[in-house]
Every structure is written in structure tokens, then in C-alpha cells.
Design brief:
Blueprint lengths: L5 H13 L4 E2 H7 L6 H11 L5 E6 L2 E6 L4 H4 L11 H13 L2 E2 H8 L5 H9 L3 E6 L7 E5 L1 H6 L11 H6 L8 H9 L3 H5 L5
Helix pairs in contact: 1-3, 5-7, 6-10
Length: 200
């Protein structure tokens, strides 16, 4: 394997430092010179910053510089949160995170209550959810999924790091089946089964 061009590493380093958001590997590839080995460049930067005050971390299919985890406690700063999410928004976000891709109707079935339009709008405005195609059923409803910004905000490298999913499934608080299947059963009249899958 040929050594990584130092210029490519410096360019990637500059791009990542200048970006306020995580940079996808695809976007990084498009901004580096043609022929640059993005995977090798990222690996080199990860190694170079492994023992530094900031580390290069992977967030989904993107990378970003973040404060080293062992220094996080020393960097903690108390600040007032200007906008608090409602319980409905938190429950909706959790359902989308664990059941994605999921439609509005499926979210309502899992929660057992009607979802106001503003709830999805709030999560969308925060950049934590995004439309992810349409369900192949009559009406072709939009499905929703979480974003890289969601992973970044909650310090997750990927959805496989969502906390407690196995425990939630074991306790019966989260259905292991796709949301479309849960929704289908609800449409057939198994209301109690659907309500059991949502938040208490």
C-alpha cells in the first residue's frame, strides 16, 4: 500500500477543522484532489489525533473533530437550554430512532395518540430527522429517519450504539419487528398490542 500523500492529509485536516458539521466521506472525497485515497487519509488522521486533545471520530458515514472523551468532564460548561423538547417530541424521536424508516401514521399507532404537525416540524427544524422516501402502500406516505446531526448531538457513532435497545425489546417496550408490521396489526384492530409498543 502506497503512503498517503501528506498534502491530502493537510487538505482533509483543514476541511474538517473549517466545517461546523460532520463531513461525509463522500463529500470529503469530492473536495480532495482526484485519486486521493479518502479511507487512508482518514485512517492517518485518526492515528495522528488519537492521543491529542481532539480526536477524529466517525459519526455514521461522516467524520469530525471532537474533544477527546477523557477530557469531556473537564470541558463541561453549564448553560441554559433555550428550547426544551416536549414529551411528545421526545417520544416521537425515540420511535423514529428505533423503528426507522417510519411514517407519521405508524408513529401515531405506536404512541397510541394523534401526532400534531408541529412535533415533526420541530424535530425536522433541529435537523435530527429527515424524509426517507415513501412507503409503497396506498397514499405513498413519507417515511422518516434520523440524521447524522442526531447521531452527532447524542454522541453516537452509529444507530447500533443507541442505548438500551435490547433491554427495551426484552421488556416489551420496543417491538423488534418493522414498524409497518406493527402498524398493520393495529389496522386490523389489535389496539392493545399497538399501545403496548409505544411509550408509557
Amino acid at each position: 500500500m502506497s503512503p498517503v500523500d501528506p498534502l491530502h492529509c493537510r487538505l482533509a485536516e483543514a476541511i474538517l477543522f473549517a466545517s461546523a458539521e460532520p463531513v461525509s466521506l463522500k463529500a470529503l472525497s469530492q473536495r480532495l484532489p482526484e485519486g486521493a485515497d479518502v479511507a487512508a487519509v482518514v485512517s492517518d488522521l485518526e492515528a495522528a489525533y488519537r492521543d491529542r486533545g481532539v480526536n477524529l471520530v466517525r459519526i455514521g458515514d461522516a467524520v469530525a473533530f471532537r474533544t477527546a472523551s477523557d477530557l469531556a468532564a473537564l470541558m463541561t460548561e453549564e448553560k441554559q437550554v433555550q428550547r426544551r423538547l416536549s414529551r411528545a417530541a421526545l417520544e416521537t424521536l425515540a420511535i423514529i430512532a428505533y423503528h426507522q424508516p417510519v411514517t407519521r401514521a405508524e408513529i401515531e399507532t405506536i404512541r397510541g395518540v394523534h401526532l400534531s404537525r408541529g412535533t415533526l416540524d420541530t424535530l425536522f427544524d433541529l435537523g435530527w430527522i429527515r424524509p426517507k422516501g415513501r412507503r409503497a402502500v396506498p397514499g405513498r406516505p413519507v417515511t422518516w429517519a434520523t440524521t447524522t446531526a442526531f447521531l452527532d448531538h447524542f454522541g453516537l457513532a452509529g444507530l447500533d450504539e443507541l442505548p438500551g435497545v435490547d433491554d427495551l425489546k426484552a421488556a416489551g417496550l420496543l417491538d423488534a419487528r418493522p414498524a409497518i408490521q406493527v402498524y398493520g396489526e393495529g389496522r386490523e384492530g389489535d389496539e392493545d398490542g399497538c399501545l403496548d409498543q409505544g411509550s408509557p
